[in-house]
Write a structure and sequence with these properties.
11 helices
Length: 290
């Protein structure tokens, strides 16, 4: 099995095009929203233009108004999360074949993105039966993933910047999830999530409800916490969870809620059901969304 060069990024932070060898496929990385110093022009367009003809394909399932600009370019497979709850299901044998030989995969460092990378390496074949469904359950936070996917998701959430772990997960999945010798490594990482979850649950006890908002002040945190869990706990109390600390306000609603946080806050680009803005917009967010 031929392994391409692996690189990792987020919508707001992408590696320079010159650091990505050869022909490149981008998987599960959304176009940047114009918020908190990032912008589509300064991040996403910069990479697209920098890669030029070396961009073999860009596959993503996150909403963005600039998708329409690439609708006639067959290299771009851009859908919404409502259409496709996870990215791996968009990585098909036909698309892998259409892209042709590639040298680099640039992907998001969560289960969804890493599973997409592994599936690409496997020619569009799932790493194991049900992997696409597991990715959908994890990325939408609806449904229950299988034990293996849950283990990998927990390991990745515990170490969200550990690119060495990202690479191990891709290789493990690309080889059909059969190397049981790696499971101890994944379990050790996943065990680290427990402390972050405990802190998230402690912080969640401080949620207050104001209309549609469940509001949590995370400035009193005692250490790192699992923000995804904290937001989910808030959504159990109100349609929109708001978590803020000294610098950032993060808002989230269920992806199938019909709530459009971007429209209500006047933000261009990004996911309509999860938004982060500077803390200077805290009062505005509460006023507009309550």
């Amino acid at each position: 099995m031929r392994y391409p060069h692996l690189a990792f990024g987020t919508p707001r932070k992408l590696p320079p095009a010159e650091r990505l060898p050869g022909r490149v496929v981008v998987l599960d990385i959304a176009f940047a929203a114009d918020v908190q110093g990032a912008s589509f022009e300064g991040v996403t367009r910069k990479l697209i233009d920098g890669l030029g003809d070396r961009l073999a394909m860009w596959i993503d399932h996150h909403d963005h108004e600039r998708h329409a600009e690439y609708a006639h370019d067959p290299r771009f497979v851009l859908r919404t999360k409502r259409e496709h709850g996870a990215c791996p299901e968009l990585v098909t044998p036909e698309r892998v074949a259409a892209a042709g030989p590639i040298d680099t995969i640039l992907c998001h460092g969560d289960f969804d993105g890493l599973c997409s990378a592994a599936k690409w390496i496997r020619g569009g074949v799932e790493p194991y039966p049900g992997a696409d469904e597991d990715a959908r359950a994890i990325d939408t936070r609806l449904g229950t993933p299988g034990p293996l996917a849950d283990l990998l998701d927990r390991a990745l959430r515990a170490r969200p910047r550990d690119e060495a772990l990202f690479g191990l997960v891709v290789r493990f999945l690309a080889e059909g999830a059969t190397d049981t010798g790696l499971l101890a490594t994944f379990r050790a990482a996943a065990d680290e999530l427990r402390a972050l979850e405990e802190e998230a649950r402690r912080l969640a006890r401080g949620y207050t409800v104001d209309g549609r908002l469940a509001i949590c002040d995370a400035r009193g945190r005692r250490g790192p916490y699992d923000k995804t869990l904290l937001l989910l706990l808030g959504q159990q109390r109100a349609p929109i969870a708001l978590v803020h600390d000294e610098s950032t306000v993060t808002l989230a609603a269920r992806f199938d809620s019909g709530i459009d946080l971007l429209r209500e806050l006047g933000i261009e680009g990004g996911m309509p059901t999860r938004v982060s803005v500077g803390v200077d917009r805290l009062d505005e967010a509460i006023r507009k969304l309550r």
